[in-house]
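re: ur question from the group chat, yeah i did fold both. here u go
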Amino acid sequence: MDSIRIETARLVLRRFEESDLEAIYLLFSDKEVNTFLPWYPLKDLNEAKVFFEKRLKGKKYCFAVCLKDDNRPIGCVHAEEDDSHDFGYALRKEYWHQGIAGEASDAVIGLLKKEGIPYITATHDRNNPRSGAVMRRIGMKYCYSYQEQWQPKNFPVIFRMYQLNFDGQKDRVY
């Protein structure tokens, strides 16, 4: 896997590495951060290692979000490689409300456009309107809502689906 590195005014976006396990644990063990993510909070560093191996390592469009001054991950931004091009982000709560998720997302969107990805989609639980605000801030448009029995947490959620088309097909909806 190539070692893409993207820099913004405040951030470095790079691949996750095994040496990031402690930072991965800090991010994905926090109950509040994980409230609206599709997995349970990590319980220990062993779970962080499994999470790294299954969900972060070797993914083409999965980036650790790091502050420029220390290169330690404080978040994650990713886009799936399947036809949904599902886009998502997570950030440690002490970095919320600072524009970091938007700044990191804009940088990854620039790469996706350059790579010829035609669009991205993203969903958020309607009970998490701040995530929808980030989606709108980065140019995504609301398309529709749907209810789903959310797994593995196994409760009903109404998701709001957003999309951003890069290829000029303004009316396409995934």
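okk and heres the other one u asked abt
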Amino acid sequence: MRILVNRKIKHLFLFLLLILSIFLTISVLLVFLELENAALYAALSSVTMALLIFLALYWYFQDQSKTINEAITQIREYIAGNRNARIECDEEGDLYRLFHEINSLAAILNAHAENEKRAKTFIKDTISDISHQLKTPLAALNIYNGLIQQEVDSSPKLKEFTTLSEQELERIENLVQNLLKITKLDAGTIALEKSPQNIADIMSYIERHFSHQAQQQKKSFTLSGDEDITLICDPIWITEAISNIVKNAFDHTGAGAAIRITWRAFASVIQIIISDDGSGIHPEDLPHIFKRFYRSRFSKDTQGIGLGLPLAKAIIEELNGTIEVDSTLGVGTTFTINFLNPTKL
């Protein structure tokens, strides 16, 4: 019987068998000896046997409960991040076979996590190397393009081509930078420096950064919110995330459009909203806009490279926030960013 391979179960059965044997022996002796109070002695032996069986079962189930609680403790340790947590399984039996399988599963998960970590590090290093290799020719191309622009004032057509060339070089440079940032986030090699930051100060920088572009493109860019709201975040990376969303709004709106940023604090949530009154996003595209390199079949835009929004989402989630999008064709798009406000919890 497989159940008897467990030492504790085997001892329990032997103990119960011993008690029954003793009780049967006493019962037989009482019958043959025909003692005066044989019935009383039989009753006492029955009560004693029942008590011993109860104590044996209580000891066994208490020991099983202790073993299972220790296993639960180790499982919780593993879930909490201790990758070396293991359940002791040096006994025989089905329960310990289950513990052994759990330990094997933990080892497999550790191996997968290690392989994934190595893969992410490899990708990060590879893209980092490629990015650094591209920086030198990009810088040289920008210089050559600038020199050509100085010589083509007399040729409007050539000047147009050099302007387009400058825009394409800028796109390539943005792609390289965004690839480097998003792979570093994936690999977990960026340590975010979180500290209390005044949101109004962050938004003031963003306003200055995009004000010239708004004037050039004849678009309205307004910001509003409480001057005293504080958010625990990394100021450099939250600025990067919001700037990418704002840039996306500028890229997908026409002249005369309005782009707005508002921020507000609720009981336990700090909310940042970036909205525009552009053409909106097609419903078919909404579930995919945070996917890397996603390009809509409904969009005629050729500027985007499909990394700005995924990078913004990755940064916001790294800062323990969430981002949602709501859009209506012909009306506009709204991105809502939520952060828990720990000072209010």
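fwiw on the second one: The first strand starts at residue 195 and ends at 198. DSSP finds seven helices and seven strands in the chain. idk if thats what u expected
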